[in-house]
UniProtKB/TrEMBL annotation:
One of its GO terms (molecular function) is mRNA binding. This is Type II toxin-antitoxin system HicA family toxin. Keywords: Endonuclease, Hydrolase, Nuclease, RNA-binding, Stress response, Toxin-antitoxin system. The keyword Ligase does not apply. Belongs to the HicA mRNA interferase family. The keyword RNA-binding applies.
Amino acid sequence: MKETKEIMPQLRDVKGNEAIAAFERAGAVKRKGKGDHVNLKMPNGQLITIPSSGVVKIGLLKKAIKKAGLTEKEFLNLL
């Protein structure tokens, strides 16, 4: 529980382009999306959609991290 409280503030200010770059470092392949959104195909076959502009909402980011098969700590190391 304590580890989660330390990670939460770091996930709050992640910009879309930073998140996309981190997922690409984890092996994602970038695809086109609608508008400013980018689709990322992960090595596990999952498709993640992230807005490329602005700060990503924490709920969306946490779902994307889980869908990618990463832990929050692993994701933060990729940033």
